[in-house]
Amino acid sequence: MEYRTEAVDKLIDCYDRGISPFSVYDGNEIDRLVSDPDGQIRAWLAKALVSDFGNPDSLKYLCRLASDPESDVRVEAIDSLSEYICEDSLRVLTGALNDPDSLVRGYAAFGVSNVGKVISPSESSGALLSLECKEKDEFVLVGIYEGLYMLGSESYLDRLISLFSSDDYHIQCAVIHSLENVLSERNAEQIGSFLDETDIAEYPVAVSCAVEELRKTLTGIGR
């Protein structure tokens, strides 16, 4: 138990400081952590590796963790892989669009667009469009719509905004965060108009706080 607590603390420190886990562990120790029976350790390793995207060994370990038996670990691995702009990362992210866990698929959808817009925009758009045809989960749809908009399909901004009508405040928050991700001078007026029509008093605190943060960001770009 003491070893596991120490390992988690070290990995959290790496993540918080933005340093590579390889700066505190050697390759053999990382190998052991990837296979550790404690899913919390594997998840924090995947999370900490986000800052190490220039290291091919980190990419290798993240690809392994992306197929971990525990969905929480896969989510962190997919989230980190979204910062690795390379063909291997895109291949794993595209495969994760078929993951049985909706949270993994949602993060994968964003990752496919973030990596794919550099590596292969048309292939990435095709993968997201194929998923859209069969996807029912709203969180995944947020990722798909954000991704397709980032890949150049302008009409998907309206579809992304439309998901704010969900009854689930988690989805409402996800929409606001996605709008912050895609916000630019080009779409500031459209997003601003949507916010002008949104009465935050009607929503949970988490949603109203997210909306206020987006409004501040809009003000910062002159809207």
Tell me about this structure:
The model has no long low-confidence stretch (mean pLDDT 94). Helix 3 runs parallel beside helix 5 and helix 6 packs antiparallel against helix 7. The N and C termini lie far apart (52 Å). 70% of the residues lie in helices and 0% in strands. It has helices spanning 2-17, 27-34, 39-48, 56-65, 71-81, 87-95, 102-119, 121-134, 138-150, 156-162, 169-182, 188-196, 205-220. It has 13 helices and no strands. With 223 residues, the chain is mainly alpha-helical.
Layout: helices, strands, pairs:
Blueprint lengths: L1 H16 L9 H8 L4 H10 L7 H10 L5 H11 L5 H9 L6 H18 L1 H14 L3 H13 L5 H7 L6 H14 L5 H9 L8 H16 L3
Distance between the termini: 52 Å
| H/E element sequence | HHHHHHHHHHHHH
Shape: globular
How many strand segments? 0
Low-confidence blocks of residues: none
How many helices does DSSP assign? 13
Mean pLDDT: 94
Output the structural class.
mainly alpha
Kindly state the percentage of residues in helix: 55-70%
β-strand amount = under 5%
Rounded radius of gyration (Å)? 19 Å
The main sheet comes to: none
